[in-house]
Amino acid sequence: MNKTINVTVNGTKHTLDVEPRLLLVHMIREVLSMTGTHIGCDTSSCGACTILLDGKSIKSCTVLAVQADGKSITTIEGLAPEGGPLHPLQEGFKENHGLHCGFCTPGMIMRCVELLEHNNNPTEDEIRWGISGNLCRCTGYNNIVKAVQWAGAKMRGEETPSTEPEFV
Amino acid sequence: MIQCKTSKAIGGMGHSLKRKEDARFIQGKGNYVDDVKLPGMLYMDIVRSPYAYAKIKKINIEEAMRVPGVVAVVTGRDLEKYNLHWMPTLMSDTQMVLPTDTVMYQSQEVAAVIATTKYAARDGREAVIVEYEPMKPVIDPFKALDPTAPVLRSDKEGKADNHIWNWKVGDKEKTDELFETADVVVKEQMHIPRIHVASIETCGCVADYSKVNNHLTMYMTTQAPHAIRTVIALVAGHVGLTEEKVRVIAPDIGGGFGGKVPVYPGYVIAIAVSFLVGKPVKWIEDRSENLQADSFARDYHITAEMAGTKDGKILGTRFKILADHGYTDASANPSKFPTGMFSIATGSYDYGTTYMECDAVYTNKPPGGVAYRCSFRVTEAVHAIERITDRFAFEVGKDPADLRMQNFIKKEDFPWKSPTGWIYDSGDYHAGLQKAMDALNYDELRREQAEKRAKGELMGIGISTFTEIVGAGPSKDFDILGIKMFDSAEIRVHPTGKAIARFGTKSQGQGHETTYAQIIAEELGIPAENIAIEEGDTDTAPYGLGTYASRSTPTAGAAAAVAARKLRDKARKIAAYLLEVSEDDLEWEPGKFFVKGAPEKAKTIQEIVFAAYTNHPQGMEAGFEATHYYDPPNLTFPSGAYICVVDIDRETCEIKVRRFVAIDDCGNIINPMIVQGQVHGGLTQGIAPAMYEELIYDESGNILNGTFMDYLVPTAVESPSWETGHTVTPSPHHPIGAKGVGESPTVGAPPAIANAIVDALTPFGITHLDIPITPFKIFKALKEKGVFAS
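Output (structure tokens, whole complex):
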């Protein structure tokens, strides 16, 4: 028995007919064909599916589409206009080599959007704890931390740290 | 500070250019296999065995076929009709696609459900009823060789045991004699347990067969698209899928690490179904399937021994291995190397005597073995040599750094022939270790440790100095299923001076779109940002063996440089023609040829390329294109010196990595930022097996941690703040002197961490602990030594 829901996705209102058991991540990827949000685990562990639900970062594999009825979601595609200026976090990840294969990246960035909104000058420890729900297998996390610190500086209107790699 | 020959605007070797591929990934516009959506596409889900070893009595598909949306259920009997129920492995063994009578590991594929939606396929999967007759599985590899153990591969004619093969290298007689007479002999039993690559993207494909065109397009998470195409043609050519009718497309791949090299049954079933129904079939495994059934890594039981003098001179090593391969030998090694490059286990030390022997056995576990950044078993080899070297240092009472310095192969002795026949190309091991020691103020750390020890506090310092062996490989010795392991680059420059280059490798995050462009920019002076790089489509890319085992820079990177140099030679001829001088009168600087002594008389590479299309010398071929298939003359030998400092809580036994310094030598560096990124990532995949990851089976063959709930991939909290640096000893035989680096950190880090933890515990008489070293393992070891006696 399908249910009709109204969800605002990246600013656009959608009226959809969905199975009650449809996961929000499948609504985004399969129904709306927005494939920037990824699936990396059975449920809840990897964070690749992280999006914003009414401004809070959530794992969209652990939320049913029907739970988003009447709510607003932001996915990676909604963070910046296509071809337009990037969100400081997107720029930060690129400038600081915060990604390799790119698969965890959308979820990681969306998690960090809320992290920086909550505290735009986090310490390294706060960043590491803040992203501990998002797994990355490629980067070793060092440069993700750098990217977030860089983005934080930009958002505070300060001079951004050097993006040159540092060696011993 | 790396000296660059080109300007930043050109972006050749040594520049930390930001990556070209990032633009699509940071905006969610990557194109991974699960993003592929084709009209009429069907979805496939796989029914898997709950038993490690069982006979299949009956597969009941009636209920599944009644599920709305389900269009078919495929079993082994269906595939048998086309002789597709078994397939060859990369090591010339055989592997089931779908079983007809016996399952051999828990989570083995048993049937496939095809449906019109993803959810219907899952519903159908739940509705398939399989009747099994469970048998007692063989799980312990040591027991697999018992004469009373069941013969697992009774499908092989004449097979009477579970032994797969025996491998040996070195001089047994000389080594045994040395070990009998040497002053000091140390021995440790080590198990390097099964782990799983667990790339964040699991494996999957969309098999798209068109009955109209008799053509298969296979979108696939594969690190080696051309090899896959050839294998498909070899296996299914008899039903019409000959090689020109098959196109393999590896799109963006979310991490490979070796786990996306093998041909998994799911791919073959998807192709078979698509072929039969003429519609696209998508199969994407979920995480638990990935962890429980895909290519595992490691699982070597090693007896490691070292012999030497009382004052610390290493004289010889001896290694005996029992290799647990699961139910078939599907490890992804070059065919003549069943233990991969394990024979590099002689290490970075100057001595002449070794003997190594390995027996591989079948067990009721998934097949695989070569994955997780192992560099073809170099992770196992380096863990063994670096652990036993530390053990030897402790036995003779020498500081582990001093002992290594005393025994290193000297810089001036390269090229150096190892006791197992490898010719190490170059290295400066003394400089590497010294740099690591200076970065940490090593002597100060030892002083601190002595103070802490006096107070009963647990602090450890661990060193790992490794020699890697990558770049497989010279055609003389290396092949995969008979295909030689060259690699290729094809470069084409357009009239307006921009270029496209295609390769036989396939990046899964290593940054080839940037680094290959930098290699070409270095040779031709065309800005890297003007050079588009493509990989992964077998219809357009030149033939190659793919990306794994850190081989891309040594092989395809070399091909790019050689092809670019062919173009530069052509450019010289055109420049001479345009400037009306002889070729000898010209000099090159990045991006232009100019007349010696008259630098204002010059032609830029862009002007030269334009002329190749509009004003080329008569008799010369028009256009500006070159291809090269590079057959490496030798492997390359990156190296490294890693030092790890740990503090262990005396009561909880919790381990904190206080500092970790990694000094890597990968020869000439193409992009320092990307090299550093590779090291960071590899180090986190090094601490993972050292402290957190292990696939655990019980005696019934049940996997106890087959999901991310219990298989502990490090998060940003567990992963330390890595410190990295480098030394540079270019490879003398490589066109750009580069060696490759991707797997060095995963090779070097686990023994550094294990050595650090053991070092903290040596005051209690503990000389070895198997990885992963957990607080509980430490607690047990200390308890055994009476430390927690009340």
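Chain A is about 30% helix and 15% strand.
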